[in-house]
Amino acid sequence: MDLLGACRAFVSVSDHHGFTDGAAAAGVSQPVASRRVAALEELLGARLFERTVRRAVLTPFGREMLPHARRLVEDADGLLHEAAAAHRRPWRLAVPDICTTSGLARLIADARGLGIALEPRTEPPARRAELLLAGRVRAALLAVPAAEAVWQVPLGLAAAGDPGEGYLHVETLRLGRTGRGPARKVWLQPEDDVPHVRDPLARLRDAVGLRPAQLARAKDLTTAAAEVHAAPDLLLCSMVQARALGLHWRPMGEFTPLRGYVLRTAAHTTPPPALTRLGVRLGRCLGADTAAEGAERPDLVPAPPHEGVGA
């Protein structure tokens, strides 16, 4: 028996003092309303109405049961209202500021086609993790080591002038004993100022004999790119970023640094199933051309933040 439907018919018939008008108000036919009320009476073990030709009058038992039935109907309507509001609530997603406007626009459009109201918010790595833990976003693309990542973005070195074919070696930035003038630098943008990218580069800097200041951190990508355009410095970045910045990109000769990303949701937040279908578009936003391989993997959202959000 449909208890909610029966209670809804019972309340509506009572409010309209008859089965015809009450059924119409409940959105069902008069015979359906009659059957539902009869089924409720059988379940409760007593008559709810004294039926006449034109009216339905509550029995003493019906008057006693009416407030309970009304509360059940109101609670159910409240639940449905909250569920509808939750579906309309935007999915605030913290993303790296390396994502382009066009990439994010396409991501939002694809999400809308899947019934997800996505609201991206660009932030640096540590801030994305903080917002997720604080519950101020519903999901975040977190920077993680390549071994933990769903998406990987290879990094290389970019210069304002064409460095020629082949690789760019960090050791070529080393100044000789008679070297004069400012030392060339490798600039890190905030997105790459994370241990799994920064620390291997620092070890390489020390191993090939560069000065500490030759691995420099910029406050933002614009500043880093300006330094490279203004001087013979190099920028650690992806190939996609280099193209967008008008720089010449080459892979590093010593090793290939990797940005790694994983999508995590806030505690007590259940991601919509369709979210996993955005894997390809998320990868393209990040500059991971091979993102299609992880497009619909079940571990696209592998763990809640309290199990380790990465940094």
Structure, described:
The protein has 311 residues and is α/β, with parallel strands linked by helices. The protein folds into three domains: 3-87, Arc Repressor Mutant, subunit A; 89-150 and 261-307, D-Maltodextrin-Binding Protein, domain 2 (3-Layer(aba) Sandwich); 156-251, D-Maltodextrin-Binding Protein, domain 2, CATH 3.40.190. Helices cover 41% and strands 16% of the residues. It contains ten helices and twelve strands. The strands form three sheets. A five-stranded mixed sheet has the order 4-3-5-12-6. Helix 5 (101-113) runs antiparallel to helix 10 (279-286). The longest helix is centred in the first third of the chain and has 29 residues, at 60-88. The model is unreliable at 290-299 and 302-311 (pLDDT under 50). It holds the Pfam family HTH_1. This is LysR family transcriptional regulator. One of its GO terms (molecular function) is transcription cis-regulatory region binding.
Poorly predicted ranges = 290-299, 302-311
C-alpha Rg (nearest Å) = 31 Å
Report the portion of residues in β strands. Answer: 15-25%
**Strands in their spatial order, largest beta sheet:** 4-3-5-12-6
Number of helices: 10
